[in-house]
Amino acid sequence: MKLKTYFKPLLIACLLAPGTLLAQDNRGAATTDSLTLEQVVNYALENTAAMEQALIDEQIGNREIRSSLSGWFPQLSANFGGTYNIKRPQQPIGGEIITFGQKYNSNIALQATQNIFDNNLFLATKASNSRKQLLSQQVTDTRINTVVEVSKAYYNVLLTKEQLRILDQNISRQEKQYNDARSRYEVGIVDKTDYQRAAITLANIRSDRKRVQESIKASLAYLKQLMGYPVEQELNLTYNYGRMEQEVQVDTTELIAFDKRVELQQLQTQRELLKLNTAYNRWSFLPTVSAFANYNLLYFNNEFANLYNQHFPNSSVGIQASLPIFQGTRRLQNLKIAQLQEDRLDVQIEDTRRAINTEYQTALANYKGDYTEWRTVQQNLVMAEEVYEIIKLQYDEGVKAYVDLIVAETELRTTQLNYYNALYSVLSSKLDLQRALGNIDINR
């Protein structure tokens, strides 16, 4: 019996290669609601909670930027006030006591101010582009994590389904062996230990199948969670078996490019913001200059009913400047703090570079190890099938004992399941390596 008799190689067809679509299963046409890896990832990028939160955070950040820049627009305000003078002020003038004012006073004031020079606003203006870039990078980071985690969960579901298919094949084969052994015992060719061993093996396989069948439900639930998929709706997946060897491979000679990692890009953007903050503190002694215009309507009368019968307007325009002279070394301390924050971030950037290098070396080592193991298990599977075929033939001819057949059957089943475990490991480690290299495709 050849390798293809027991399984068709599992292909999770698209390892994040741009534009690659996962096709239908060779054993039959996919249903209309079956999703490929690309469709699953695209759905997740639009519906997962993490992406929705990241996009909302980006909108909040953009609104905060607009709010910080709103100080450049004219600031308009209106004030209204009313006073009842219980005891009006008096002053002796020319030997007489003169009472000033009216019992009732009221005023309506309109004021407009326009900032001309404000260091805080200049900082907000210069930092706006960097802040927008940082928000965009945060969204990109979430997209990368979403693609990787959803892809791994997708692979895990398919791996588990393939394990279930292998166990179904083993159950079918073992049921036949059990029936054959029982028939041989009944005609007196063998003793009852053969069919008893067959019964034990069959029960163990059925137990494994039940465990795997239940784990599929948990794997699908986890994938739905990552996708933001409706819990009550059925999720069907489709994939292509034909391009496994091509898709699991990756260029292991590619050198790491630190600039491609979004984590470093975020730190560099933060560095730009800290440089602007340092410049702001360095020039914090500059004055704040603004222009203003006021228009006031004054009302006063001794009778409340006649208070608003006549108004007395006044207005003014001008310019004002506020210059901090001495603040107890606060500006100097703030400048030193800003410079130290830059130094601290420089240390963090260098440490992040080392961490990324460690992540890359680890991912590369894992991928190479997993790929070698997958190829080894693939070869072992061919030999396990040949061994099983030979021993099965020898058992049928009465040359081998039934226990030898059971051992060969167990080894074959174990090797088949190990094959898919190894395949999942190499697919996952390839994703980790692509993330370490900064090669995850998020433009879907």
Molecular shape: elongated
Global mean pLDDT: 86
How large, in whole angstroms, is the Cα Rg?
39 Å
Q: Which H/E pattern describes the elements? A: HEHHEEEEHHEHHEEHH
Largest sheet: 4 strands, antiparallel
With strands numbered from the N-terminus, the spatial order across the biggest sheet is 2-5-7-8
Helix proportion of residues, in percent?
55-70%
Low-pLDDT stretches: 1-32
Helices, by number, come to 9
Structural class: alpha+beta
The N- and C-terminal alpha carbons lie at a distance of: 42 Å
Strand percent estimate: 5-15%
Number of strands: 8
Protein name: Outer membrane protein
Keywords: Cell outer membrane, Membrane, Signal, Transmembrane, Transmembrane beta strand, Transport
Signal peptide: 1-23
Organism: Pontibacter amylolyticus
Fold and architecture overview:
Belongs to the outer membrane factor (OMF) (TC 1.B.17) family. Keywords: Cell outer membrane, Membrane, Signal, Transmembrane, Transmembrane beta strand, Transport. Pfam families: OEP. This is Outer membrane protein. It comes from Pontibacter amylolyticus. This protein has 444 residues and is an alpha+beta fold. Helices cover 60% and strands 14% of the residues. The strands form three sheets. It has a four-stranded antiparallel beta sheet with strand order 2-5-7-8. A two-stranded parallel ribbon has the order 1-6. A two-stranded antiparallel sheet has the order 3-4. Helix 4 runs antiparallel to helix 9, helix 7 packs antiparallel against helix 8 and helix 8 runs antiparallel to helix 9.
